[in-house]
Amino acid sequence: MIEFHLERSGVPTYLQLVQQVRQAVRLGVLKQGDPLPTVKEVVGTLTINPDTVLRASRQVDLEGIVEGRRGVGTFVAANLAPVPPSGEKELRNALRRWLERARAAGLDDAAIAMLFDDTLRPPVVSRVA
């Protein structure tokens, strides 16, 4: 079962939960039919508002990643395209080397996350004529 964690990254709490579910399914940590923790369990572990957990749950449900079964719980409904196993180890090692260089350059985890996010999703620049 997945154990959620939160970071002070500026990313809304519900999105952190959504991203963790997506990642766990994509990496095969969670497989089709696996249960997710209950709202009560997540609220107790992370000390967050139940509405936040419900919002995250609705989001991954809308994406078709999970499905709620009334009175039973929420379960993984579909497997996402996994990271290709042949290149995963090499990519992970390259990422570790990059992280070492970033930390040696003086970046902390928050700065690294912002740099990664900015690179992954460049800001949209609107040009006014």
Descriptive overview:
- This protein is mainly α and 129 residues long.
- The chain is built from five helices and two strands.
- It has helices at residues 13-26, 39-46, 50-62, 85-104, 109-120; strands at 66-69, 73-76.
- A two-stranded antiparallel sheet has the order 1-2.
- The protein starts with 12 loop residues before the first helix and ends in a 9-residue tail after the last helix.
- The model has no long low-confidence stretch (mean pLDDT 87).
Q: In what order do the strands lie side by side in the largest sheet?
A: 1-2
Residues in β-strands, percent:
5-15%
Low-pLDDT sequence parts: none
Please report the total strand number as a whole number: 2
Average pLDDT over all residues: 87
The 3D shape can be described as globular
Could you give a quick summary of the protein structure above?
With 129 residues, the chain is mainly α.
Key terms:
mainly alpha, two-stranded antiparallel sheet, 129 residues
List the helices and strands and how they pair.
Layout: H1 13-26, H2 39-46, H3 50-62, E1 66-69, E2 73-76, H4 85-104, H5 109-120
Antiparallel strand pairs: 1-2
Helix pairs in contact: 1-3
